[in-house]
Each structure stands twice: as structure tokens, then as C-alpha cells.
Design a protein that fits this description.
- It is built from 22 helices and 20 strands.
- With 724 residues, it is of the alpha+beta class.
- It has 2 domains: 152 residues, Ubiquitin-like (UB roll) (Roll); 409 residues, 2-Layer Sandwich (Creatine Kinase, Chain A, domain 2), CATH 3.30.590.
- The strands form 4 sheets. Strands 10, 11, 12, 13, 14, 15, 16, 19 and 20 form a 9-stranded antiparallel sheet that branches. Strands 1, 2, 3, 6, 7, 8 and 9 form a 7-stranded mixed sheet that branches. It has a two-stranded antiparallel ribbon with strand order 4-5.
- β2 and β3 form a beta hairpin.
- α12 packs across α14 and α14 crosses α18.
- The radius of gyration is 28 Å and the shape is globular.
- The mean pLDDT is 91.
- The structure holds adenosine-5'-diphosphate and magnesium ion.
- Magnesium ion binds next to loops.
- It comes from Thiothrix litoralis.
Length: 724
């Protein structure tokens, strides 16, 4: 018997809930960074020399000598044990969007039978997990499995508190015995180093003599949905695929735009406070939170940090969001499109590069036309986006982000760069060879005496651009909410490194020809704009006119699905880029393509199977049960001489038949596995399987609008999005 029992029980459970009582929470000054072995902690616990060495490594990435590692390990262990930790773990970042950890006890037993603790420099520096059990894209076979984790001293160790106790977590890189990167951290560190080398070259050619190490920075805005956990347990699709595979649109969605920046529901507020306190303990600078566009959707953004630390913190943030949500009776959904028809979730990756001597090189200041460093770096980004747009598209490609890109409230799958009117004019002037004074934003004066005047920004915002300049940084807006920020950061740092090297080569030639640094820089930027200015676009990125013009007139690539985008990783341009800059060898790059392609195939495979199962065992039975009730009622009424119109029953029967016919086609399609290449397999999934899934869904969603609410087994959109 189909029934709505699971739904009504869920609603009952939720009606009994109240916001968690957090008790009296500690002030920020007491909890900030208290679980982090940061520089302050090292200064307290290390000898002067060891601290100096660690600080240098932390700030410049310079190698640390093994004797110092021993001293650090001992201090780290003492500190961690004083905080209750009995275990330590190397935490690393394999080619998934998740983290991996291998826990070991500090304890060893002595010959006398006593328990002593041990944690030497060598245990800190190196661990040995099995390299073949993680996605490795044929880099490791099961019989040649050795992999290493190695301590990254530039990302601080910390204590993770769980129900299982406290564990010292040590951020690490992960590589194979043959020395290839099996993770996302190694290429991120390499891309940062490549960017630094190239940036040093350009700045020195431009006449700078004192140039400190350059570092990339990242501030990631994380969007997410919260639904009550009780609903999730009644929806196998949410549990296994992280999104709803079925669900008719609710009568009220986001059309009133009344959720964005609205008052945050109390249970959610308490969750946010609890989460933020946990983040503060771990030294993660959570800075803003608010409601997002869709009902049930929210955002959290920490203050920006060095890209490597920000990437580690972002992974930790996602982990803590899920754990904390659970303890508040919520499910935190990081999927890019958990609910069809409402806003999807992204992760805007704000990115800039800078150092201690020249500052933020993407800060134009008040007179960008006079700021040659800024112009050179911004020009390098423009070239990068144009030359490597397909790479930027490929690093954000996933089965789940495909649902979001190009849909409502999400950037398109065509990579262009938005500069804002003032900068667009500056670069147009450079192209035209006549650099003029720029227009300033001026003052905002409302003419209301009680409202103070303030400076207006020189340009408006454009939220339809996938890659936008936002005042002193670029914001990569097409990144998906569940994705690691490392892939996008690697791509941005590497394309910038390559463009800066290209600029340096050209600058060298111009300077040899006798030009002064300023004239030479502008001459090179003129070439940048002539060759790559097509990537600059300030209009509406959502419009169909742009989709047409971008491809037909500007020669930009529109890569709507991952099946189109992922193979771009194998293009000679991309392989050349990574090899030239030393960020990924051809083998490492190829392994990444294999891993991501396999993840795409597996995700759709799982969803198709799940869809077939739910349609057959939950939705079709609900239709049949309701039909049998209708026909029994119609029969009884007929005996009383009353005729019940059979239109509804007929529609249900027709939809139920069509549903099962579509399920049949989907089963057949998803059983097909004889493809000549993974590219062909991805193409088939994108074009055929996804279409059939849409067909199955359409019939199921129509049935939801026809079948008695009492028999509908799955929590509905209106319930999941609005009941908190
Ligand atoms: P908005 O929603 O207006 O884009 P938010 O304040 O939500 O802005 O998020 C902006 C993000 O950009 C924050 O994480 C912020 O710390 C980060 N950010 C600010 N300046 C820089 C910079 N120079 N480099 C990198 N990230 C930055
Ligand atoms: Mg933003």
C-alpha cells in the first residue's frame, strides 16, 4: 500500500523540534584559533631558532631542515596531547572533492609494558597510505600501490574534535612512489610557485628591485541548502545522489524574491552560530552569512587567506557544515542543483595575487590608468581567460554543476571576463593607443540630509558573468558549491603564470629595442588586447544573443556539458600550459582527465539506477494504488446510480504507462557499456541518458500533481523548502 506515512512522520518530527540550546558561548577572543598549532602557538612552544625557521617556511615556502621537523613534532605532540588528543592523522586532498585521513595513535608500548607516546619528525613528515585505493587515473595499479603523504608546513596543523575524541590533523600532500601528484595540493603549490617566478620576472623588468615572494589569495563564498533531516531520510534520491531526482514545482517558489537577505529562520541562525564558533576555534575567519535567493538556501563566506590555506580551510568548512547541520537536525546540501526550478548553489572563488612589497597586484587604486603593475597583471588575466577559457570551464565541470551552469541565476558555460565600465574603457584606450584619464565613480548624494554622502564605485556589478573583476580581485563565479576550490585556483594561477611569462618575453624584447618600462608595458598590453580582447564582455551573460555572438563573432567556446568540457583537459594547449609551467606533467594531467571522466560517468550511472528504482518501486505503485481506489469508488457509486467522471483516472493511467515506458528506455540505455572511449560514454550520457532521465521525471512530476496527497510517498518541494 502506498501511503504518505514517511512524509507525515517527518513533518511530525519537525514540528517537535526547537532550536538547539547552545548555552552561554565563549567570546571570540577566547576561542579564536585555540585548536590550531599556528605561529603564535609555535612561538610559545618552540626554541627561538626552530620558530624562526618555521616562520620563514610558513611565509615563503622555503625548505625546513629535518632537525627542525623533529623539534616541531615534539612540540606539536605535547600541545595536542594537552588538548586531549590521543591520535594524529595526516589529512590529504585526493582527486575527489573530499578529504582523506589515516589515523594513528601517539601511543607505543614499552618493553616493560608501559604505554609511552611517540611522535618523531619522521612521523610528522611522511605517512604511507595505499596509493591505489584513491582515484589515481591509472597512475597506480593495485599491485604497485605505494603512496606517500608528506607534511605541508605552510598549512597549520589543528585539532579536530568529534564524538570520537580529539585528533591532531596534519595537512599533507599525497603522491605516488613514482613521485606523481595524486592530489589537489601538490599542483596548487606548484601553480603558486610558477606564478611567483613569472611575476618576479615581470616586476623586475618593470623596474622593481625589491620584490617579496608573491602568493595567491582566495576567499570562497559557499552557498548551500538546509533541509530538515527527517525529510531527507524519506528521500532515497537525496540520500544517495545528494539531489532530488523527482519533485513537482511548488505553488510558491522564489518568485517573490523574499528570501534573499531576508530574516534568517531561528533554527538556522543557531546552526550558523554553532558552526561559526567551531570555525573560529580552527582559525577559519567566517565573515558573512545570509539567506540566498532560493527558499532554504544560505551562504557563508570566510575572509580571504593565502590560496593554499584557504583551500584546506574550505574543505574543512564543508566537512564542519555537514557535521554541524546533522547535530541540529538538518541536512546540509552542497549539491549544485538539489531542487529543479529553483536557484542552484555556487562557490564564488575570489582570487588575487600579491606580496609584502608591491601589495595586491590586482588593486587598481583610484587611477588605474597610471597603475602599470595593475594593468600588466590585469592584462595577463585577460589573456589567460581568453587563451585558456576551455580549461577554466573544464576545471568546474561535473555532473552536478552541469545542472546549474546556464540555468537560472547561474553563470553561462561560456568563459568571458567582466571588467566594469571604467576598466573596460582603460583597456579599450590601451588597445586604441590613447590612454586617457578615467572617469571616477563620484559621490553618491541622495539629497537627503540625514543620509551621509559616500564614494560610489567606479563600475557597476555584473552577476551574469562567470569571471568578474570585483574591485581588487577576480571572482570566478561558475565554480560549483560542492567542488574543491583547488582546481579553479590551480587553473587561475597557472594561466596567470603563463601569461606573465608571455608578457615578460615581450617586455624583454621591447626594452631591448630601447623603450622605457612604461611605454614598453603599454605596447605589450596593446598586443594583449588586440589578440585577446575578445574575452572581455560587459553585457548580459544570460542572454541568448550573447550565446550566439560569443561563439559566432568572438570565437569563444560554448561548452554546455562536462562531456564537452572535460576532454579540453587533453587539448595540446592545456597540456602545453601545464608542462611549460611545471604544474602537471602530461601523465599527471591525463590521470586527472581519467579520474574526472570516471566520476562523471559514475554519478550519472548511480542517478539513472536510482531513478529507475524509485519510479518502479515508489511512484508507479502510488499511481496504481490511487487508480484502484478511484475505480473501486467509481464502481460503488455506479451501483448507486452515480457516475464519477473518469478523466483523472485516465490521465493517471496514461502518465503511469508513459512513466514505465520511459523507465524501460532508460534501463536499456543505462545498461549500455560498450563504448570505444570514455569520451563517447560521456557524450552518450549527456545526450541520451540525461534526456531519458528528464522524460522519466516529467511523467513522475505530473503524477505528483494528480495523485492524492495521502498516497504520495516522497516529501514534496513545498515541504522540504519551507518547513523548518
Ligand atoms: P560579495 O557577495 O559581494 O561578492 P562577500 O563579502 O560575500 O562579497 O565575499 C567576498 C569574498 O572575497 C570574501 O571571502 C572576501 O574575503 C574575499 N576577498 C576580498 N578581497 C579579496 C582579495 N583581495 N583577494 C581574494 N579574496 C578577496
Ligand atoms: Mg560574490
Amino acid at each position: 500500500m502506498s501511503s504518505n506515512l514517511a512524509r507525515t512522520q517527518a513533518i511530525h518530527t519537525i514540528s517537535q523540534r526547537s532550536p538547539m540550546d547552545l548555552g552561554k558561548t565563549d567570546p571570540l577572543s577566547k576561542i579564536w584559533g585555540c585548536d590550531v598549532f599556528n605561529l603564535a602557538r609555535m612561538e610559545e612552544t618552540l626554541s627561538k631558532n626552530a620558530f624562526k625557521a618555521m616562520k620563514k617556511t610558513f611565509q615563503t615556502g622555503e625548505p625546513l631542515n629535518p632537525a627542525t621537523a623533529d623539534v616541531v613534532a615534539a612540540a606539536m605532540k605535547e600541545w595536542a596531547m594537552s588538548k586531549g588528543a590521543k591520535f594524529f592523522s595526516h589529512i590529504f586532498y585526493p582527486m575527489t572533492n573530499a578529504t582523506a585521513e589515516k589515523h594513528d595513535g601517539f601511543i607505543i608500548s614499552s618493553p616493560e609494558g608501559n604505554a609511552i607516546t611517540d611522535f618523531s619528525g619522521s612521523l610528522l613528515i611522511k605517512g604511507e597510505p595505499d596509493g591505489s585505493s584513491f582515484p589515481n587515473g591509472s597512475l597506480r595499479m593495485t599491485n604497485a600501490a605505494r603512496g606517500y603523504t608528506a607534511w605541508d608546513p605552510t598549512s597549520p596543523a589543528y585539532i579536530m574534535h568529534t564524538a570520537n575524541g580529539a585528533t591532531l590533523m596534519i595537512p599533507c600532500v599525497f603522491l605516488s612512489w613514482t613521485g606523481e601528484a595524486l592530489d589537489k595540493k601538490i599542483p596548487l603549490l606548484r601553480s603558486n610557485a610558477a606564478m611567483n617566478t613569472a611575476a618576479q620576472r615581470v616586476l623586475k623588468l618593470m623596474g622593481e628591485t625589491d620584490v617579496a615572494t608573491l602568493n595567491s589569495s582566495c576567499g570562497a563564498e559557499q552557498e548551500y541548502f538546509l533541509i530538515d533531516e527527517a525529510f531527507a531520510t524519506a528521500r532515497p534520491d537525496i540520500l544517495l545522489a545528494g539531489r532530488t531526482l523527482f519533485g513537482a514545482p511548488p505553488a510558491k517558489g522564489q518568485q517573490f524574491d523574499d528570501h534573499y537577505f531576508g530574516a534568517i529562520p531561528e533554527r538556522v541562525q543557531v546552526f550558523m552560530q554553532d558552526l561559526e564558533d567551531k570555525l573560529y576555534r580552527l582559525g577559519i575567519p567566517a565573515k558573512t552569512h545570509h539567506n540566498e535567493v532560493a527558499p532554504g538556501q544560505f551562504e557563508i563566506a570566510p575572509y580571504f587567506e593565502s590560496a593554499n590555506v584557504a583551500a584546506d580551510h574550505q574543505q574543512l568548512l564543508m566537512t564542519l557544515m555537514k557535521i554541524t547541520a546533522k547535530s541540529h537536525g538538518f541536512l546540509c546540501m552542497l549539491h549544485e542543483k538539489p531542487f529543479a526550478g529553483v536557484n542552484g548553489s555556487g562557490k564564488h572563488v575570489n582570487w588575487s595575487v600579491g606580496n609584502a612589497t608591491q601589495g595586491n597586484l590586482l588593486d587598481p587604486g583610484n587611477t588605474p590608468e597610471e597603475n602599470l603593475h595593475f594593468l600588466a597583471f590585469c592584462g595577463a588575466v585577460i589573456r589567460g581567460v581568453h587563451q585558456f577559457g576551455p580549461l577554466l570551464r573544464a576545471v568546474i565541470a561535473s555532473a552536478s554543476n552541469d545542472h546549474r551552469l546556464g540555468a537560472n541565476e547561474a553563470p553561462p558555460a561560456i568563459l568571458s571576463v567582466y571588467l566594469g565600465s571604467q576598466l573596460e574603457q582603460v583597456f579599450q584606450d590601451i588597445k586604441d593607443g590613447k590612454l586617457l584619464k578615467t572617469k571616477q565613480g563620484g559621490q553618491m548624494d541622495l539629497g537627503l540630509s540625514q543620509i551621509l554622502k559616500f564614494d560610489r564605485d567606479p563600475g557597476d556589478r555584473n552577476r551574469t558573468s562567470p569571471f568578474a573583476f570585483t574591485g581588487n580581485r577576480f571572482e570566478f563565479r561558475a565554480v560549483g558549491s560542492s567542488q574543491s576550490v583547488s582546481g579553479p585556483l590551480i587553473a587561475m594561477n597557472t594561466m596567470l603564470a603563463d601569461s606573465l611569462n608571455w608578457i615578460a618575453d615581450k617586455l624583454e624584447a621591447e626594452l631591448k629595442g630601447g623603450k622605457d618600462a612604461a611605454t614598453a608595458t603599454l605596447a605589450v598590453l596593446k598586443v594583449v588586447m588586440e589578440q585577446h580582447g575578445n574575452a572581455v564582455f560587459g553585457g548580459d551573460g544570460y542572454s541568448s544573443d550573447w550565446h550566439k555572438a560569443a561563439v559566432e563573432e568572438r570565437g569563444l567556446k560554448n561548452l554546455p556539458t562536462s562531456a564537452d568540457a572535460l576532454p579540453e583537459l587533453l587539448s595540446p594547449e592545456v597540456a602545453g600550459l601545464f608542462e611549460r609551467t611545471g604544474v602537471l606533467s602530461p601523465v599527471e594531467l591525463h590521470s586527472r582527465f581519467e579520474v574526472y571522466a570516471e566520476q562523471y560517468v559514475n554519478s550519472i550511472d548511480v542517478e539513472a539506477k536510482l531513478m529507475i528504482n524509485m519510479a518502479t518501486t515508489m511512484i508507479y505503485p502510488a499511481a496504481v494504488t490511487y487508480l484502484s481506489e478511484l475505480s473501486a469508488t467509481a464502481g460503488s457509486l455506479q451501483e448507486l446510480g452515480i457516475t464519477l467522471d473518469n478523466a483523472v483516472a485516465k490521465s493517471i493511467a496514461a502518465e503511469a504507462n508513459a512513466l514505465m515506458a520511459a523507465v524501460g528506455k532508460l534501463s536499456e540505455a543505462s545498461a549500455k557499456h560498450d563504448f570505444t572511449s570514455v569520451q563517447d560514454h560521456m557524450r552518450f550520457l549527456a545526450d541520451t541518458v540525461r534526456e531519458l532521465m528528464n522524460e522519466v521525471r516529467a511523467h513522475a512530476d505530473t503524477l505528483e500533481t494528480l495523485i492524492s496527497d495521502e498516497m504520495w510517498p516522497l516529501p514534496k518541494y513545498s515541504e522540504m523548502l519551507f518547513i523548518k
